[in-house]
Amino acid sequence: xxxxxxxxxxxxxxxxxxxxxxxxxxxxxxxxxxxxxxxxxxxxxxxxxxxxxxxxxxxxxxxxxxxxxxxxxxxxxxxxxxxxxxxxxxxxxxxxxxxxxxxxxxxxxxxxxxxxxxxxxxxxxxxxxxxxxxxxxxxxxxxxxxxxxxxxxxxxxxxxxxxxxxxxxxxxxxxxxxxxxxxxxxxxxxxxxxxxxxxxxxxxxxxxxxxxxxxxxxxxxxxxxxxxxxxxxxxxxxxxxxxxxxxxxxxxxxxxxxxxxxxxxxxxxxxxxxxxxxxxxxxxxxxxxxxxxxxxxxxxxxxxxxxxxxxxxxxxxxxxxxxxxxxxxxxxxxxxxxxxxxxxxxxxxxxxxxxxxxxxxxxxxxxxxxxxxxxxxxxxxxxxxxxxxxxxxxxxxxxxxxxxxxxxxxxxxxxxxxxxxxxxxxxxxxxxxxxxxxxxxxxxxxxxxxxxxxxxxxxxxxxxxxxxxxxxxxxxxxxxxxxxxxxxxxxxxxxxxxxxxxxxxxxxxxxxxxxxxxxxxxxxxxxxxxxxxxxxxxxxxxxxxxxxxxxxxxxxxxxxxxxxxxxxxxxxxxxxxxxxxxxxxxxxxxxxxxxxxxxxxxxxxxxxxxxxxxxxxxxxxxxxxxxxxxxxxxxxxxx
Length: 639
Prior knowledge:
639 residues; mainly alpha; 79% helix; elongated
């Protein structure tokens, strides 16, 4: 055993001494590469010596393949990491700028999108306007899906808005091409950083948001400037490995377009930003690494990749929201199909429009690099514009297609949040709106639960009674979980930077869900009393049943009015107060009469206890309903 390890050490030393010769034979020159070779040798010869011949051959093949695939030295690795950092700057700038613009516009975006979509053409204009305003088609699409999920937009309206968003997103590419690659942004962004940080210290919410917008804008163009400079430093046109890859793909003909289309889609899905990949595409084409056809294939892939975000957001949403997200994917897939059929003629048309000459050499014509970026942006705009002009006439057909693909679900009795999802780009304004819709849905469930109670009281069959009682019990468990889920969502929203008004809304909504859950508890308590009466074979007199039914009617009216207040901010809250006063007065009257009826032996004492327990729980239910109205309206109605 000792001899074997001594032999290994001697053999390993021999190989390490000769590793420098190995490195030279593999065109490895730096000290870093020599140490890398030694490490591979050392790790390899930890295997049994009886495999040394095989390992020796395997080692050489490993080193050769590693340096074919990893041709860059440590400085190249640093440049690659720097490239990723530039992308991070660009993506962060887009995110901050888009979120700041959404904060600036606030509920205005929602109002514009929900009121200016009367027909498909105004919907397209609205989608284009909103996307241009917030500089993110992903944000517009996610917002649209959320509005559909919240019931504020129909599917047909959402389809037209998404079409407009695809046109509006091309503006970002033109901004990058006109300013990011044509103007030395280095001298501009740093003063903008100073202005942005200064404005962010203002107490005014709109001024602070505008400062964040300037900050995001500065990060965006700093990322573009550093990305362009990094590409120059990497000297990609003289990198044999990179150029060989693009040259080999270029020789594949039509298959080359498909490869770059898939590549563009995958990259956009990974980074979740079509703007970042578009910037890289511009650099590759303007430096001559990729030809115009490969660049445009990447742009087509970016259009498909950017649809992933909205589909992810819609995964836990309503069927209508899923359909809107699916249309976004179908829209871009259809466009890619017809463009690939007339690929070269379509590109030639765009090139003539922007004045780009295929025969111009990038190295000899300094304006060719600029115009090739215009070709990419022009193609992006023409593609989405033509695709919209083709499909806008078939919105009803497309609506039927996505409805057929994604079936509507039947109403179930499982705990399901219909409006609160994992929106990736939801702002506080949108999140609060979604929470309002979810609370309204919670109230509707509470009303549905309450309406089971009168049915339970009139059942005489034991099996039917047990089934309905179990169903009410299940609803009570659902209400507990819904309260917890909505509260957790609101707490997460509250962690962000919110205005004073938004903080007050969240505080009110937390009280609302607590009171609605108490309504469900009252329903369950009433059903428990009815179950106790049923098991004890107690009966109510006709007069008691008449009084209980009237109380149930009053409570049902109070709950319906509560739901109207939650759904419509303009609803008169005094109606709820009048119903609450009527419930209280009726409870007091029945309580006084109950004592007299027991004394007069109109019914048993136990029957009277069950009777007043139901009346008392109904009165509590009315209190909880008026508490919800007070929390939502922000007023004090009771003393």
